[in-house]
Amino acid sequence: MSTRPALERFCLEVRPRALRLALLETSGNSHVAADLVHDSLERLVARYPDKPEAEWAPLFYGILRNRITDWHRRRKVERVFDFFFAGGDEADGEAPGWESLADEAPGPEQQVGSLQLAGRIADAVARLSSRQRQVFLLREMEDMTIADTARVINISEGSVKTHHLRALTRLREWLRDDNPASGGPDHHAD
Question: pTM above the 0.70 mark?
Answer without folding.
Answer: no
